[in-house]
Amino acid sequence: MSIWYPYKQMQSLGKIPTVIKAKGSMLYFEDGTQAIDAISSWWACIHGYAYRPLNRTLKKQVDRFSHVMLGGLTHTPALKLAAKLVEITPKGLNHVFFSDSGSVAVEVALKMAIQFWSNQGNKEKIKLISCKNSYHGDTFKAMQLSDDGDFTAAFSHILEKDFEIQIPENTNEYTQELQNFEALLITHSHTIAALVIEPIIQCAGGFNVYSSDYLDALNCLCVKYNVLTIYDEVATGFGRTGKLFATNHAKCVPDIMVLGKGLTAGYIGHAATIASTKVYEAFLSDEHNKALMHGPTFMGNPLACAVALKSIEIFQKKEYEKKILKIESTITHFFDTIQSEDIQGKRVLGAVGIIEVKNEKSIVGLKEFALENKVFIRPIGKMVYLMPSYRMKKKELLTILKTMKRWFEK
Ligand SMILES: Cc1ncc(COP(=O)(O)O)c(C=O)c1O
């Protein structure tokens, strides 16, 4: 096999569909069949596939120039996108560092946080607090912060967590967990650079939804004990939770926010790490060593920036938040009708719907069953989830939901 596919034992890969065309929410396969994509290519293609306004923007930019590095040069698409991101992200986040993937953008955030302290002469604050059930990417430091599980198992012997907290599933455990968190900070904050957290919903690591009040409470304690906050919005950014950013559900703002996936509407891999002025200013100095020494070749790629700008413009002009709330309502109502003893829980937030099963065995074969019914769905562990494009037709969404219902009720 010449391609080495992700997250898959290649020995048992079997036959997978070959896509020859993708349009709207539909994937068209080489054998003449088709399927509705329930997860918009790992949640990135927020407007669906081959969306004309985005295609046109990209073609125009290709004719101007498709790549110019940001080392010693700059260009209008990057300048405009940075300004736009500062405008639309929560107040205080003012400085945008571009990179080429969510994982790298998380790494950049970690470098910013640790160097923030060392630039001020504090070389002790180097540790990180991460959360159980989280996922932050596949690079080494991102794996160290992610939950122990399938994604990290092969390296568990070299991935040692600094500190890990649990976000409680039940609100009645919040007070106790916050007391534990404060106790951790009282004892160890002098060694801790930052808390890294996915706001409001933890995605690939567990699909847990939690309250913005809890997030704010963690943030306040971090401020109190001088620990930076990094919100990883790679999955949640650009509308997934019903608001433009998940942080917008909360009152507090992080020191650093990470964006990826939906940033370029799935057209080109790109990401952004956005820092507060407090963080940025700690890097201003006469000493070169205090600069942020990071620079991915394709950072600020003009094609990525141009398509991101257009995507944001469409998101805002066409009131996508309203569209997402309609998706949320459709999923919520339909989920209420799906009953099965195999189901442990159901959760819906924005354009995310999750059915958690009690035992992974009960969803063996679901992917194939869905494909036979013209739906592409790809459970992770015990989670069957949908994250459709925001332009998915209601009829298509209902086809996905009916297929899930048939599976669980068969
Ligand atoms: C919350 C979160 N952070 C980081 C990443 C990594 O992003 P990428 O796959 O672009 O490296 C992901 C990917 O799923 C994610 O969901």
Can you put this structure into words, describing what you see?
The protein is α/β, with parallel strands linked by helices and 410 residues long. It is 35% helix and 18% strand. Strands 4-12-11-10-7-5-6 form a seven-stranded mixed sheet, sandwiched between helices. A four-stranded mixed sheet has the order 1-2-3-15. The chain is globular and about 65 Å long. The model has no long low-confidence stretch (mean pLDDT 97). Bound molecules: pyridoxal-5'-phosphate (PLP). Pyridoxal-5'-phosphate is lined by residues 101-103, 106, 135-137, 198, 203-204, 232, 234-235, 260.
Summarize the main sheet. Answer: 7 strands, mixed
Strand fraction equals 15-25%
Q: In CATH, what is the class of the largest domain?
A: Alpha Beta
Number of helical regions: 12
Number of beta strands: 16
Structural classification: alpha/beta
Order of helices and strands: EEEHHHEHEHEHEEEHEEEHHHEEHEEH
**Chain-averaged pLDDT:** 97
CATH homologous superfamily caption of the largest domain: Type I PLP-dependent aspartate aminotransferase-like (Major domain)
Overall number of domains: 2
Distance between the termini: 36 Å
Order of the strands making up the biggest sheet: 4-12-11-10-7-5-6
Bound molecules: pyridoxal-5'-phosphate
CATH fold-level name of the largest domain: Aspartate Aminotransferase, domain 2
Radius of gyration: 21 Å
CATH architectural group of the largest domain: 3-Layer(aba) Sandwich
> How much helicity do the residues have?
25-40%
So what's the overall shape?
globular
Uncertain residue ranges = none
